[in-house]
Fold this sequence. Notes:
By secondary structure, the protein is mainly beta. The protein has five helices and 33 strands. The chain has helices at 10-15, 143-148, 191-195, 362-368, 463-467; strands at residues 31-32, 38-49, 59-64, 70-76, 81-87, 95-98, 122-127, 133-139, 152-158, 167-176, 203-206, 213-216, 221-228, 235-239, 245-249, 252-257, 263-266, 271-277, 285-290, 298-305, 336-344, 352-355, 358-361, 372-374, 388-390, 395-402, 408-412, 417-422, 432-433, 435-438, 443-449, 454-460, 471-476.
Amino acid sequence: MSTFSPDISRRDLLKAGAVISASQLIPLRSVFAEDGVREFELVAQISTTNLAGDFFPETEVWCYNGMSPGPEIRCKQGETIRVKVKNELPVDTTVHWHGLRIPNAMDGVPYLTQDPIEPGKTFTYEFTPPDAGTFWYHSHMNTGEQVGRGLYGALVVDEVAPIAVDRDVTVVLDDWRLNENAQIIDDFKNRRDFARAGRLGNSVTANGSVNNAIAVRKGERVRFRLLNAANARIITSRFQDHKPVVVAFDGQPTEPHQPEGHAIILGPAQRADVIIDMNGTPGESYHVVDGFNPQSPIPILELEYDQEEAKSGVAKGSSLQLPPNPIVKVDLSEPQVEMVVLEGGDLGRMRSANVDGQDKGLSELFLMGKMWAINGVSAFRSTMPPMFKVPLGKTCVLKFSNQTVWPHPMHLHGHHFTVIEHSGSRSQIGRILDTVMLGPEESATVAFVADNPGKWFFHCHILTHAEAGMMAIIEVS
Ligand code: C2O
Ligand code: CU
């Protein structure tokens, strides 16, 4: 690993006269097309940005509209939007709208739901997000590398009647693997990452910067939308001297509650909406840290209090319960029950797996870069036969058994599932998620109503795991 050190404290930076970026995400401008549809434009391109701070050169990234995270797409629940994606990269790409329950043809999985967007070409996505909440968009082509290089952004669907807050702040978290010149290390096919915890970075950013600060005022109520866009890092956010109240996971409202230990744990691709009543001291600043490694928490964000207190504090005292989204309740009286056995990885028990219809032993699998399997199958492309089919409208129960010593955030496209059982953390039970975290050797049961027809991708969101076989297709028809 490189000698790049992201651990310079903010105080040191201030002494050195460094600029702290107070960057809120830039909203993507929209125009109304002739037919009245709100239209956005994303350009996938190569650009440079300062990820690592003033002491380092700019980093070359692959990104949307010149920035990573890309600009924030924002619309209202029930509103139709159209996004024109122009590919100015030298390689094929697509865009997936993570967590949005939209038609299959708009889902952005290359070869499965659309042809890749070739260099110089444009593809237009159009859909009506049924759910309000915090979602995101990201490349789904050669995903580990393209997301790892910065091709993602936040997508927020506003409630028709949102809860009252003074500030609404999206915080996109990521980690990057940088060399001593702050350039992305080009080892996206690193075998060790494939077989173990995935591609972890050495530099953690909030909204694309290591020195990010957000201005707040005492007395304000702030809604933070935290999004983990990392390839593999499980991010544990802690707000120094503040007590966040979680109101939604993966875009879906939950009963407002203070999480255990006041920490927000997000696996790759997961989101949480949290409300914080700002009660710090005016003029002071407070850290938000990532406790991924409990021995050395990394500052990811500063909350900088203005000298002045908020005047009105309008939002305080009002309800924190978000209105429910139109998700059909699962019917557990006669569900279709499917096992989902996760196998493989270093120190695992997997001895063979099926690749493209043929059984392969461990050494052969290793040579092919296939190190993980779901139900004995190590996936090799996105047009494989479905793992199983569910009739439209039926409730499907997935019984996960993680028979590996590694964590897996498992994501199903086009649907959200309800957590029914979880051996690892009871607190996850009842959550409605698009991505469920399974710790080593854990098991969990989730259920969803298969009400969105199509062939849906289902995979681990540790992107190297998916690439190395941990993916499948579930067909709803
Ligand atoms: Cu966010 Cu198939 O992924
Ligand atoms: Cu995994």
